[in-house]
Amino acid sequence: MSSRDRILGRVRRALADVPADDPAYEAAVDRGYAREHGGRTVAETVDLLAENLADYRAIVHRCTEDEVSDLLMRLYAERGSETVLVPPGLPPHWLAAADPVRIHDRAANTPHELDRVDSVITGCALAVAETGTIVLDGSPDQGRRRITLVPDHHICVVRVPDQVVASVPLALERLDPARPLTWISGPSATSDIELDRVEGVHGPRTLEVVLMSGE
User: Fold this and answer.
1) CB count in 10 Å sphere of residue 1
2) Checking DSSP bridges between strand 133-136 and strand 182-184, what pairing results, if any?
3) Residue 170: its H or E element
4) Which residues pair with 61 in a beta bridge?
5) 32 pLDDT more than 90
6) What is the DSSP letter of 40?
7) What predicted TM-score, i.e. pTM, was given to this entire model?
8) Would you say residue 6 has pLDDT above 90?
9) Could you give the domains of the chain?
10) How close are the terminal C-alpha atoms of the chain, in Å?
11) H-state helical runs in 80-142
12) Which residues contact 65 (CB under 8 A, 6 or more apart)?
């Protein structure tokens, strides 16, 4: 008898005294939980996102689409970034004014090469206001997961309000579960048993989020 047979046998014995007319699990469990908390306007939802991003130690900027190129140029200049990793589908005008050398994401890039890049810039799939979370799904403007896990500085552009949702349940409705989803709440951080916080252990030490409106 295999381990699988033994486990299934134990399940059958445990369920032997359950009446046949018991409701199915899906029907027995109440799914009427709140899909979001409170009623907010679009502007209030974006403000909540900015507040929670900052609470997770992300650096938040706001601009219009016409201003994004100049803003990114200033951010790279302030950090002294000489190279920036660029996913294949990033809108070219975002970096029209930026000076850093563009490093294009290629399958041949080694982790050591990615580690030498000063910054990476991506778009996102969604941003969740109630949790201060940005979600990447590997779309062309975001690139592969590893390019946002190795470089020490990540700039993520969120289109406001189209890519902002209030809650996780609303986000899940819009995301494709078959895609490689990465959920990011602030820069990479971990704490040891004494609760000493260390940043940059398994991802960027610095996360900057640009909330870009279409106005």
Assistant:
1) 6
2) antiparallel
3) helix 168-174
4) 210
5) no
6) -
7) 0.82
8) yes
9) 40-213 (3.40.50.10420)
10) 67
11) 111-115
12) 212, 213, 214, 215
